[in-house]
Recover the amino acids of this structure.
């Protein structure tokens, strides 16, 4: 049947010459239509490109032919090939007198070119001319092009004409002019900031099409600056009211709904305006309630409006009646068979739980159904919901589910997202150390390369510090369990680098602690690891540092170190490594092996990661030395700022500073560099012999001074060395700046972890009660599912505390049941309904037994009263028809103070409330200091181990 | 707009994307949430209509927008099919241009959408 129709159509086209289309064109379209593979299609298009190239280059092609060629070019471009050879013909066609050709030319140009293309400049002139045309269709074509092609630089060329067209007698022109201004606003808000008032005026346009279009720019404007548009709340409410009351022309109806797309846009705007504003919200309640009540939940579009209403309710100042109505609508969505509606239901739920978290409990079973649904989109959406409702009482179940899902998917983008969410939740709500370590192990094992490197450093810090309890036994238990699990895991192939680094670090620090494992066992394991990952320098660097730690702990403990042959060969291999970083680590390891116990103990104190390193910024311990030097006739130190520019010219950094301040050329010759005081403390020379007064000294300086720091510690325990600033005070200005070793943990605060553990173990007893309740209602639900529900949604409000051990126990059973229920559901699930609906949508939503809207009405009447009171004259709510309403509004709009809006629009930049919200919350949870410190920590560590040319700061690990 | 074999039949972008990005988007049409985009799609016989939207969009409304577009085309072509769109690519584009500007839905009245196009046809 289908084919017959097509053939008939083709015949019809053939007989009419296909509306002026040539046989060639028909053949092309047909052959493209008949291709069965991309390669075949490519061949046809490539052939077509050749044909078009020769045709277009021949002169005297008739115009109607050219139009066809242009459309064929559109096909070429659309099917993914380059048609740039024909762009100029599209540009030429925009000059044509014939309207259809002109518009086709504009269409082709807008599809081919982006706004920064070189050819645009040729079109601006045509656009200018066409904007002045008498034929309004030509003006419309030009305005369409304006919306697609005018960039920031060309805005001034057309702006005056566009503004003039705002008052054009044809509504289509006014509409498009509004959208052109909108485009200018999108591209360069500053360029139209003085014209914002026009949008307000056009909102009162007689034509509903213009009004509807004006909502788009106003939405954007309100998004960036809510406060300047609060006065429009009444107007928007009135418009929405009129739309809902079918005052708009019938042609705007869609599936018996009056202008639904306008309604949705208005609801979006109102939710922006009412967000966090009680007064504005009160003006909005009535109309939203009305729309919810009137809504038709049997059609897609009706549900779309209903969904928008829920979104609106969830952003308005909370109103119990409306929330109830919204919750009701959500339950209808969730109970629906349509995947689309369930998707929207989950989304709406995640919006609504922000203001009333208890709603989730009513829908727990529906949520679990969605989670186990084979539809991936629905599943992801549900995970998003779960992520938002995670508490310490349900974190184990949720994270467990997330990890399982993470393992099952391949899309690395989404995997990363889920992994980082797991980490975030685990850090925020971890009920116990063990669980945290195990969770992190899983995340690292499966997505270690995808998560932020910060996470790895976080994990190391956590193992080092424990959870902030003073109980050392618990901490060491945590560490030994980490060591144990790592020893098990590390043999597995394909572990991500970040995870291996963590393993090396933990084994180095704590591998031999507690005496369970011998040094040779751990070092053997580390060697195996380094050999297995011989291409990964970072892992090797971590491994060799770990070896160094273990050996020095052994030496410090007075035991004899025997180095395994494979370790010996590993070290030898690294001594000759191409990586200077590895080489230096290996040399340092060798040097340490040659030292006595006392020195090693000072250099490598056992379990010192968490000790704060105090740094003496004033380098007071050097005072004696300086004094002595001065007495011996050395030059006194001249601070940087007091030195002349000429002296500083050797220093890159200073030179830059200087240049930025003077910006002048230097004509004198460079001065001979003066030797400066050696920065080396005597005791350090035994570690690394440094030739004094040489350039090498400068380059090596950072390393040596750090070693001197630790060894000078040996001399006097009170005096500590502050290293940043060394360079500036002593020594000739440096070629490279040593990175300030404000390494790692000197700013870390341990007590922060207390918050992690605070709210652990919220009782599940209430959850059980809830699940029993629901069992009464729906007997057929399997108890496993209910248990899962209970563990997910249970007892938010109860905050009785239990020991973490008990929650550990329950989690085990929960996990178990979760698995079971998964199986149960798989068997009982009906075949998944297709996401896309081919026919008319039909939802089997049964009407609720009690009409919540009946109850609503009382309240709505009340609010209506207040609205009309507060709105005063403007709120002529009973405006008889649309135009009179607009007339009213235009009066009020004109009397407004536009200047203030304009300036405020100017100053506002960007949106992004919701994204910042999260980070703020995070900061609140973690404390800003800690976060900062962690970032620094991560950065410094990374710098320390990356074999960059700049002074690899090798003792960072020790200090950190 | 893509047909059953994933072949592109009509494409308009409201933010300029280069060819590579477009290809990546179009070839993974079965993804519903792809990176930062959300793709709303609807199938009519052999033709899929895909609309890529950001996260703040009302998906169901977009689904109905697709249907509105199809209804509009149907009114213009009379019992519209894939070949109508292929043979009259520019007209399909014109309709879309009337309905969507700057990535916003501006016109939803079928008569307002079609009248300029019909006038233009008469004129030439």
């Amino acid at each position: 049947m289908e084919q017959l129709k097509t053939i008939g159509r083709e015949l019809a086209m053939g007989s009419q010459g296909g509306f002026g289309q040539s046989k060639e064109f028909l053949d092309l379209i047909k052959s493209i239509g008949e291709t069965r593979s991309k390669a075949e299609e490519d061949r046809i298009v490539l052939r077509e490109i050749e044909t078009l190239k020769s045709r277009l280059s021949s002169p005297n092609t008739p115009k109607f032919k050219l139009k066809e060629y242009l459309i064929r070019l559109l096909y070429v471009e659309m099917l993914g090939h380059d048609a740039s050879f024909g762009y100029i013909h599209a540009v030429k066609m925009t000059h044509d007198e014939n309207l259809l050709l002109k518009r086709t030319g504009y269409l082709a140009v807008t599809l081919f070119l982006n706004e920064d293309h070189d050819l645009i400049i040729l079109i601006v002139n045509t656009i200018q001319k066409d904007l002045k045309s008498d034929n309004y269709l030509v003006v419309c074509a030009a305005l369409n092009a304006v919306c697609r092609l005018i960039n920031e630089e060309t805005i001034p060329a057309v702006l005056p004409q566009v503004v003039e067209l705002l008052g054009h007698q044809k509504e289509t022109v006014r509409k498009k002019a509004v959208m052109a201004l909108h485009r200018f606003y999108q591209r360069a808000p500053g360029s139209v900031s003085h014209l914002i008032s026009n949008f307000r005026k056009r909102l009162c346009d007689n034509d509903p099409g213009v009004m509807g279009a004006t909502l788009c720019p106003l939405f954007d404007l309100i998004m960036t600056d809510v406060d300047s548009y609060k006065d429009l709340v009444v107007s928007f409410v009135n418009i929405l009211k009129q739309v809902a009351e079918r005052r708009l022309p019938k042609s705007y109806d869609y599936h018996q709904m009056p202008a639904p797309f306008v309604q949705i846009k208005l609801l979006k705007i109102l939710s922006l305006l009412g967000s966090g504003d009680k007064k504005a919200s009160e003006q909005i309640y009535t109309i939203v309630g009305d729309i919810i009540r009137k809504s038709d939940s049997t059609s897609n579009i009706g549900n779309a409006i209903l969904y928008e209403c829920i979104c609106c309710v969830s952003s308005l100042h909370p109103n119990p009646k409306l929330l109830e109505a919204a919750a009701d609508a959500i339950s209808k969505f969730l109970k629906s068979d349509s995947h689309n509606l369930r998707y929207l239901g989950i989304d709406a739920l995640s919006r609504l739980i922000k203001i009333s978290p208890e709603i989730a409990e009513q829908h727990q079973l529906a949520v679990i159904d969605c989670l186990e649904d084979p539809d991936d989109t629905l599943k992801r959406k549900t995970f998003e919901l779960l992520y938002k409702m995670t508490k310490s009482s349900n974190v184990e179940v949720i994270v467990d589910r997330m990890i399982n899902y993470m393992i099952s998917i391949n899309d690395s983008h989404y995997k990363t997202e889920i992994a980082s969410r797991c980490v975030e939740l685990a850090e925020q709500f971890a009920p116990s150390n063990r669980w945290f370590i195990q969770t992190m192990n899983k995340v690292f094992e499966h997505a270690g390369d995808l998560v932020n490197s910060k996470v790895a450093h976080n994990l190391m810090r956590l193992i080092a510090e424990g959870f902030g309890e003073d109980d050392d036994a618990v901490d060491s238990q945590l560490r030994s369990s980490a060591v144990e699990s790592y020893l098990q895991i590390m043999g597995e192939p394909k572990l991500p680098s970040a995870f291996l680094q963590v393993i090396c670090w933990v084994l180095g620090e704590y591998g031999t602690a507690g005496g369970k494992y011998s040094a040779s066992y751990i070092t053997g394991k580390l060697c195996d690891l380094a050999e297995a990952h011989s291409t990964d320098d970072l892992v090797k660097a971590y491994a060799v540092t770990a070896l160094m730690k273990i050996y020095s702990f052994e030496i410090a403990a007075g035991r004899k170190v025997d180095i395994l042959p494979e370790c010996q060969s590993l070290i030898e291999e690294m001594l000759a490594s191409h990586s200077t970083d590895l080489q230096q680590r290996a040399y340092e390891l060798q040097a340490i092996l040659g030292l006595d116990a006392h020195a090693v103990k000072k250099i490598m104190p056992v379990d010192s990661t968490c000790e704060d390193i105090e740094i003496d910024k004033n380098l007071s311990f050097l005072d004696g030395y300086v004094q002595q030097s001065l007495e011996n006739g050395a030059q006194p130190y001249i601070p940087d700022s007091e030195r002349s520019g000429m002296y500083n010219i050797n220093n890159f950094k200073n030179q830059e500073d200087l240049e930025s301040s003077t910006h002048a050329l230097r004509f004198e010759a460079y001065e001979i560099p003066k030797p400066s005081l050696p920065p080396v403390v005597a005791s350090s020379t035994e570690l690394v012999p440094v030739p004094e007064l040489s350039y090498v000294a400068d380059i090596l300086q950072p390393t040596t001074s750090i070693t001197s720091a630790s060894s000078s510690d040996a001399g006097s325990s009170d005096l500590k060395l502050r290293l940043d600033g060394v360079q500036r005070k002593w020594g000739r200005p440096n070629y490279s700046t040593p990175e300030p070793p404000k390494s790692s943990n000197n700013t870390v605060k341990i007590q922060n972890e207390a918050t992690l553990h605070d709210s652990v173990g919220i009782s599940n007893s209430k959850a059980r009660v809830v699940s029993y309740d629901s069992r009464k209602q729906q007997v057929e639900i399997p108890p496993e599912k209910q248990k899962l529900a209970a563990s997910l949604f249970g007892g938010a409000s109860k905050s009785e505390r239990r020991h973490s051990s008990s929650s550990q126990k329950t989690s085990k059973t929960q996990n178990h049941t979760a698995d079971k229920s998964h199986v149960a559901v798989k068997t009982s699930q009906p075949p998944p309904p297709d996401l896309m609906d081919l026919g008319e949508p039909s939802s089997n939503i049964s009407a609720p037994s009690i009409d919540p809207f009946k109850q609503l009405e009382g309240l709505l009447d009340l609010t209506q009263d207040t609205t009309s009171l507060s709105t005063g004259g403007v709120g002529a709510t009973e405006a008889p028809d649309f135009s009179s309403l607009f007339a009213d509004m235009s009066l009020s709009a004109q009397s407004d103070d536009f200047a203030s809006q304009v300036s405020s629009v100017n100053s506002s930049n960007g949106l992004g409330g919701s994204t910042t919200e999260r980070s703020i919350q995070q900061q609140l949870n973690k404390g800003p200091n800690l976060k900062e410190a962690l970032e620094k920590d991560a950065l410094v560590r990374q710098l320390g181990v990356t074999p960059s040319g700049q002074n690899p700061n090798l003792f960072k690990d020790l200090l950190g | 707009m893509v047909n059953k074999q994933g072949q592109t039949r009509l494409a308009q972008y409201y933010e300029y994307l280069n060819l590579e990005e477009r290809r990546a988007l179009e070839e993974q049409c079965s993804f519903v949430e792809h990176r930062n985009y959300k793709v709303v799609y609807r199938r009519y016989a052999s033709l899929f209509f895909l609309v890529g939207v950001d996260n703040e969009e009302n998906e169901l409304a977009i689904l109905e927008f697709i249907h509105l577009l199809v209804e509009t085309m149907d009114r213009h072509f009379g019992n519209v099919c894939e070949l109508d769109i292929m043979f009259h690519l520019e007209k399909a584009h014109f309709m879309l241009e009337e309905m969507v500007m700057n990535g916003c839905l501006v016109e939803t009245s079928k008569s307002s959408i079609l009248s300029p196009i019909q006038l233009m046809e008469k004129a030439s």
